[in-house]
Amino acid sequence: xxxxxxELRTLALGTPGELRTTLNTLxxxxxxxxxxxxxxEYAEECEELERVGERLVLVDDDDALAGVVEIxxxxxxxxxxxxxxxxxxxxxxxxxxxxxxxxxxxxxxxxGTPVDDDTPIVCLxxxxxxxxxxxxxxGDLGT
Length: 143
Hints:
Blueprint: E1 4-5, E2 8-11, H1 18-28, E3 34-38, H2 39-44, E4 55-59, E5 65-78, H3 84-89, H4 97-110, E6 120-131
Parallel strand pairs: 2-4
Antiparallel strand pairs: 1-2, 3-6, 4-5, 5-6
């Protein structure tokens, strides 16, 4: 299972270090409004898909609260069918869907979980509710 803070599941973007810091900064600045993950990760972690309206705690490298996001869309699609409009919403600077696919395929391959065009991908849309531990009210944490 994924860690919880309060009653909320956590959202740990990328891998710890520079990548996670960059991705969190993009979310906290409102540039990153989408993120993608392999559907297989949910089964591996005994987790259900997120649901529209669910709030998640964005965490840093220490699994500490960096912000709170709300899920605004959930869709499972084949890796080869992820649309450019979604990839662009990830806000990571990709200039085309081909560049997005190459970057994400390389990332998952580095993690030892290669993908191909038929790999099911969970495409999450999100919006920032609050950023930083100082800006989070207890109601944001489900407490």
